[in-house]
């Protein structure tokens, strides 16, 4: 019975993939096909990413936002050889060249058969930096809700610290303004849902008096709109 051998290097009695040993397969085949450019949109203020028609804030830094955009785009557009398994993709650096064009270095690690491989590829980035809806609202002073923090008898920094200890990332990114007075603090929210969620969390743990009201009522496109005012007394 004839022995099996690699048609490239001639090695015998080895694992064969398309009549080649894994090592020769890696050397002769195009294991990964990269898109010519990577496209995306990022908010230049808060690093939110434009995903499926809406702004989503996933990363704290611009580098991490770019990395998210790159990996998401590659997951959709990159073509992997059918014999590649256990692969992982990462962006290890990005830079801008003298002419103003931006690039990223992509690394792909994986296996063909029992043979590991590591590929590097320079890919051009065409990213649009704009301002997301939330940042535009903050810059314009827009708000949907106000939380008025007060003391039952008198206000104190301890009560403020207790209240703000419940802030999440969503809370912080939804606040457009903070106004401090002798009586307490007013927090202006660009998103009333975030304000309501914060109050729900606080009242599940803290004994607080809550009063809701509305102000500045208007009619817009046939719908009644008003600013939500939530009074919180701790």
UniProtKB/TrEMBL annotation:
<dbReference type="InterPro" id="IPR007064">
    <property type="entry name" value="Nmd3_N"/>
</dbReference>
<dbReference type="InterPro" id="IPR039768">
    <property type="entry name" value="Nmd3"/>
</dbReference>
<dbReference type="Pfam" id="PF04981">
    <property type="entry name" value="NMD3"/>
</dbReference>
<dbReference type="GO" id="GO:0005737">
    <property type="term" value="C:cytoplasm"/>
</dbReference>
<protein>
    <submittedName>
        <fullName>NMD3 family protein</fullName>
    </submittedName>
</protein>
<feature type="domain" description="Nmd3 N-terminal">
    <location>
        <begin position="6"/>
        <end position="234"/>
    </location>
</feature>
<dbReference type="GO" id="GO:0043023">
    <property type="term" value="F:ribosomal large subunit binding"/>
</dbReference>
């Amino acid at each position: 019975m004839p022995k099996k051998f690699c048609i490239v290097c001639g090695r015998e009695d080895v694992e064969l993939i398309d009549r080649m040993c894994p090592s020769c397969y890696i050397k002769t085949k195009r294991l990964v096909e990269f898109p010519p450019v990577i496209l995306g949109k990022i908010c230049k203020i808060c690093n939110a990413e434009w995903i499926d028609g809406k702004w989503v804030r996933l990363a704290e830094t611009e580098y991490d936002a770019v990395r998210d955009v790159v990996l998401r785009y590659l997951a959709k557009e990159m073509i992997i050889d059918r014999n590649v398994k256990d692969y992982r993709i990462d962006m290890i650096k990005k830079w801008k060249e003298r002419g103003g064009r931006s690039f990223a270095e992509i690394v792909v690690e994986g296996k063909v058969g029992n043979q590991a491989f590591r590929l590097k590829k320079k890919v051009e980035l065409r990213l649009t930096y704009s301002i997301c809806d939330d940042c535009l609202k903050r810059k314009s002073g827009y708000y949907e809700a106000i939380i008025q923090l007060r003391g039952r008898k008198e206000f104190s920094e301890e009560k403020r610290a207790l209240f703000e200890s419940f802030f999440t990332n969503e809370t912080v990114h939804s606040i457009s303004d903070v106004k401090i007075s002798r009586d307490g603090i007013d927090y202006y929210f660009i998103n009333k849902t975030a304000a309501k969620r914060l109050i729900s969390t606080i009242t599940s743990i803290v004994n607080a008096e809550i009063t809701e009201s509305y102000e500045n009522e208007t009619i817009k496109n046939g719908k009644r709109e008003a600013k939500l005012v939530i009074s919180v007394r701790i």
